[in-house]
Amino acid sequence: MADVQGRVRERLRLHLVRHGAAAFEDPVLFAEVEHLLRASIEAGDSHALILPELLGEPASWRLETAMRYGSHRGQAAASAVLFVKQRLLMPLFRWLFEYSRDNFERQRRVNLVLFACVQELALENARLRHDLQRREP
Questions:
Q1: Distances (CA, A) of 24 to 7, 94, 114
Q2: What are the boundaries of each domain within the chain?
Q3: What is the pLDDT of residues 8-50, one digit of tens each?
Q4: Contact status, residue 49 vs residue 122, Cβ threshold 8 Å
Q5: DSSP assignment, residue 89?
């Protein structure tokens, strides 16, 4: 199994090099980057990430897919408008929501992975800075 994974990794590395990622000509560098990204994906648990905490309230940055009906009109007009929204527009909105929900979920997963990658890179950057400061007189 390790041999198959190694061949797949090498094929991916060569594909990236052919398409302009010249930095990956070094297999060791590619392996380090891949290891860092895989660790980020595996650590993609939103409870172990600092970036969502720094972004503030989830309501300010997380997609909200729940629909709320309301009206600023008077009572009689409001009930008519709400009836039209719920009975006529709701089926269309529900179809659109169902169509989009998978995309929203994929985007949520990508966001978590990117948060984890940024966190891993920040950790690595902090470690390197710490090592450099220790070495300087």
A1: 15, 45, 20
A2: 2-135
A3: 889 988 998 999 888 888 888 888 888 877 877 776 566 677 7
A4: no
A5: I
Residue 21 CB coordination number (10 Å): 13
Q: Which residue has the tokens 């009906």?
A: 69
3-state secondary structure 3-45: HHHHHHHHHHHHHHHHCCCHHHHCHHHHHHHHHHHHHHHHCCC
CA gap 53, 56 in Å, rounded: 6
pTM of the model: 0.54
Q: In sequence order, what are the residues at sequence separation of 6 or more whose Cβ sits closer than 8 angstroms to the Cβ of residue 124?
A: 36
CB–CB of 118/37 below 8 Å?
Answer: no
Tokens 């590395």 sit at which residue? 13
